[in-house]
Amino acid sequence: MASLAQAHEPLPVSDLQRFLCCHRGSTGHVNQVWPRLYLGDAFTARDKSVLRELGITHVLNAASGRYRINTGPEFYRDLKIDYYGVEADDDANFDLSVYFYPAAQFIRSGLQSYKGRVLVHCAMGISRAASLVLAFLMISEGFSLVDALRSVSEHRDIFPNHGFLEQLRQLDMKLEAKKRS
């Protein structure tokens, strides 16, 4: 007999990928995927006029660093934007999970600030940045991984690499176990 305390097992990565292939959203440069939370690409992150137009107050760069999308606090100084950079590789072997909680905290803080609007971006806004937005929805809003995927993919075409999806699956299991205890 199965006990209520047994581990929650989210869908396998292959099923999650199939789900994403069937739930296609927009493919623009930037999309609002949650109230006042935008998911975008490097083009958007570097276009200060678009950032002004959107009212962005916080930027989370999931492809930060000298050899990636090299923006930072200095780049946004004239816009008075709070900045958080994550030097992540879009590689299935990269451990993005160490950034899930700090990124979720940064996003939450930005959304709670006066007139806060947050842009989370990487090069294309479909894998690294999307994974951090999904983690935020799971950690801060209590979504399951499938519900987070459904919510974001309604607004933007995303496709985290299989390593990031597995890390998000592990997060989903930990959060579900925490809810049950």
Topology, please?
Blueprint: H1 13-22, E1 30-34, E2 37-40, H2 42-46, H3 48-54, E3 58-61, E4 82-85, H4 100-112, E5 118-121, H5 128-141, H6 145-153, H7 162-180
Parallel strand pairs: 2-5, 3-4, 3-5
Antiparallel strand pairs: 1-2
Helix pairs in contact: 1-7, 4-5, 5-6, 5-7
What characteristics describe this protein?
Protein-Tyrosine Phosphatase, Chain A; 43% helix; alpha/beta; 181 residues; 5-stranded mixed sheet
CATH topology: Protein-Tyrosine Phosphatase, Chain A
Structural class: alpha/beta
The dominant shape is globular
Radius of gyration (CA) equals 16 Å
Q: Specify the CATH architecture.
A: Alpha-Beta Complex
**What does the main sheet amount to?**
5 strands, mixed
The proportion of residues in beta strands is 5-15%
Average pLDDT, all residues = 92
The CATH H-level superfamily is: Protein tyrosine phosphatase superfamily
**Count of distinct structural domains:** 1
Oligomer: single chain
How many strands in all?
5
The first-level CATH class is given as Alpha Beta
The order of strands across the largest sheet is 1-2-5-3-4
**What order do the SSEs take from the amino end to the carboxyl end, as H and E?**
HEEHHEEHEHHH
Helix content: 40-55%
Number of distinct helices: 7
